[in-house]
Every structure is written in C-alpha cells, then in structure tokens.
Amino acid sequence: MDVMNFYTDPAVIRSSVEKVKNAARDFRNQHQRVPVIMEVCGSHTMAFARSGIKTALKDDVNLIAGPGCPVCVTDQKAIDAMIGLAGKQDTILCTFGDMMRVPGSRRSLVDARTEGKDVRVVYSPVDSVTIAERNPEKEVVFLGIGFETTIPLLAMAVRKAERLNLKNYSVWMTTKLVEPVLRTLLDSGEAEVDGFLLPGHVSVVSGEKSYRFLTAEYGLPGVITGFEPVQLLSGTYKLVRMLREGKHAVVNDYRSVVGQSGNQIAQSLMTTYFTFSDEEWRGMGAIPASGLVLKEAYAAFDAKRRFNVTVPPQRKTACRCGEIIKGRIAPEDCALFGKGCTPVNPVGPCMVSTEGTCAAHYQYMREE
Amino acid sequence: MCIGVPAEVMEISGEEARVNVMGAGMTAGIVFVPEVKVGDFVLLHAGQAMAVIDRTYAEESIAEWRRVLDGRDEFLY
Ligand code: SF4
Ligand code: SF4
C-alpha cells in the first residue's frame, strides 16, 4: 500500500482509534480521569476535527487546542497598525490570505481593501519583494506574521530585497516562537496538561532537540506528529502510552520530515537577520523574548522603524480567544460562539483562521 | 497557515526548482534544501521547500505502526 493511502485508510483509522481508546482507558483506570493532551499547532486542531477523530475520542482523551496558530495569536494592535499603514498614500500592503479577515479593533484588512486601499494577498513573502521591484514608486510593506515555520521565509524575502538593493520594501514583523509561549503557559500554572502533540511543521525548522526542555524542566512528554489521520492517531497513541507508563520523553513520530536538529540553513538565516523581541500575544499579553524582529543592521527593511503608525485605543469585545488559546475553555463556552460569531462574521481570530479552534469546532463539531 | 504540502522535484536551476504539487507545476525555492535531487519529494511551505521527505523513514514508520495495530510489537520508544 502506498504511503499516502495507508495514512488515510479507513480500516487502519478504525483500528487505530481503538488502540488509542484502550490505552486511554488504562490511564483512566490508573488516574480516575481522562488524559489531557494539548495540540500546540492549529493545523493539528483542524485535522483532528475534520477527520472526526476528535469526536471519536471525546470520551477517552481530552484534546485541547494550544497557542499554535499565528493568525489566532496576532494582537489586535498589529491589525490596526496594518490598516493604518494601508491608508497611507502610495503604499501597497501585502499579506498572507489568512490575515485578511482577522478583526482589528474596528475593521479588518478586507474592509480596508473594500474601501479602496491597496491590500494584496501573496502566497509567499518573496512574491511581495517582486511587487516592490515592479512598483518602484510605491512603498511595499509585508505583514510578517508567523512561527518558526514561516520566519525563515521572511528572512528570505529580506535577503532578496537586499540583493536587489530595494529602497521601497519593508516587513512589519510580528512573529512568534513556540518555546517561550509553552514555557509561559506552563509557568503560569493555568494549563493543566499531561502532554503535548508537537507541531510537525514548526519542528521541520527547529528540530526535535528544541523540545527537550519539556521533559528536562517540566517532566512532560511530547510527540512530534504529522497531519494525516493515522499520523495523528499514532502520535496520540504514543503519547497516551507514555502517560500510562509514567514516562516522559520527546518522541519524533514524524521522522520522514523532521530531523534531530531541524533545518540548519533556516536557523542560520534567522540568526543572521533577526534578534529576539518581546511580543504581544492576543489574549495573553506581552511575553519576553517570544518573537523575532530585524536586527539594527537591517533597519532599512523594518516597517516599524520606517513608518510612524499610531493605533487607536483598543475596543473590548466579549471574545474569549485568549482563554481558548491557553486551553482554558472550549469554543462552546464562549457566549458568542455560533451566535454573534461565525466564520462568515467572525468576532475573534480563532473563528477566522483556517486553523482556528473556534472555526474547527464550528465547521466539524457542532451538535445540530 | 503553516501547513506544508508535498511536492516532487522535476528540474533544478540554481536556487529554484520546478516542482509538481498534486499534478500542478510550480516554481519553488530550494535554498533550505541544497541537498535536494531531481525525483526527491520535498515539503513546500509558502513557496519554499523546507525539507526533503524521506520515503524510507515514512515506510518504516508505517511498518512499525502496522505491527502495533496487529498487536505484534508494543515497543515504541
Ligand atoms: S499552521 Fe502554523 S500557524 Fe497554523 S496552526 Fe500550525 S503551526 Fe500553526
Ligand atoms: S467563538 Fe468567536 S468570539 Fe468566541 S472565542 Fe471564538 S472567536 Fe472569539
């Protein structure tokens, strides 16, 4: 059987679900409660919901979503600043499609575009450099969001702009790193988690090694896993087994893609261009050294230094995304879920992002 | 947003390659995977190949998981 067919084979999925349930029941007999597993990455959250695995496991494993979707954790102020920038004359604002509908304090980038601002969706940050090259009379700004998966691509874009000696290109950096947010969650004592399913694609860059602190300092296990149904189940099974046996290791269950030390070239590009910064996380506040910004030497490509953007005061909504990304509540616990807040009319980013927890629950887990 | 897609490398020229993503041809950067060869599979993310996907490892993990499902091998780590 081909690799892809195996990962999605219904018979294999069914017996895998049984395996996980059995292991989880052993855990429950030992501890009189179900194991709590946080999937750090929003793509895992979505894949669990879409494949029906989350529903299939709901009585035996408590799967909670974590802070791993860059769209969901982007602070409102960043969106407001972007809308402000898009309003400047002769500016082209480029962004990933996912960011278009994220609500700022009052409006989203889609609204800004509807009002005639030049906001463009690009597939790759490098494409925004090409736009700058073709429009020398305009300022081109890329909204640089992302985790470790995407940050090296921002470095690539700056590297290209540098090589082309562009004077009209800059990046508005608002990036996030996985380790500091996990540490913050664990140190706060707010997350009651037995173990982690670790983000497959972030790990491509940061490597298996980057999670050693989980076991060494917090005594918690983790499994790096892929996104196909059988991969999700295999990762969950390995994690539940470790919990059942009281073991805490970091297991790489995605070795065909993720290495021990990650992608060295991506890491060295990141160190060349970026330095640590304190970042605001939506719903969580500022976390020291939890993101990367351009180094002084690349200030010419740093939109925050080039443009003076003031943002209006924040408006409070009843959105509870902050608690969602900390695993404190489920979307159904938010009073707006499915009522004032739907994918068509989202109030918070967790309903906007294709990997958002609220969107996943809305699309795949609602009980009619 | 950070989801990656697998692609097959068809042709390499400098820092770029022609790749095949589920039947569609496109250009992707290969700066992060200098070891890549024509015929390899890579994981693409926003226009760049981020890793060469190792078929052998994938097949081994399937074999391992099959044993687990058959109850023949319970040793995992
Ligand atoms: S894709 Fe990236 S951004 Fe989206 S949830 Fe995963 S790690 Fe995340
Ligand atoms: S349902 Fe909507 S308002 Fe409530 S937490 Fe989710 S995104 Fe925010």
Automatic annotation (TrEMBL), chain A:
Keyword Metal-binding: yes
Cross-referenced Pfam families: HypD (PF01924)
Domain of life: Bacteria
Coiled coil: none
Keywords of the record: Iron, Metal-binding
InterPro entries attached to this UniProt entry: Hyd_form_HypD, HypD_1, HypD_2_sf
Keyword Secreted: no
GO biological process entries: protein maturation
Record protein name field: Hydrogenase formation protein HypD
Organism, as annotated: Alteribacter lacisalsi
UniProtKB/TrEMBL annotation, chain B:
Domain of life, per lineage: Bacteria
Classification via InterPro entries: Hydrogenase_HupF/HypC (IPR001109)
A GO molecular function held by the record: carbon dioxide binding
Gene Ontology biological-process entries: protein maturation
NCBIfam families documented for this protein: hypC_hupF
Similarity-based family: Belongs to the HupF/HypC family.
PANTHER family: HYDROGENASE MATURATION FACTOR HYBG
Name recorded for this polypeptide: HypC/HybG/HupF family hydrogenase formation chaperone
Taxonomic lineage from the root: Bacteria, Bacillati, Bacillota, Bacilli, Bacillales
UniProt gene name: hypC
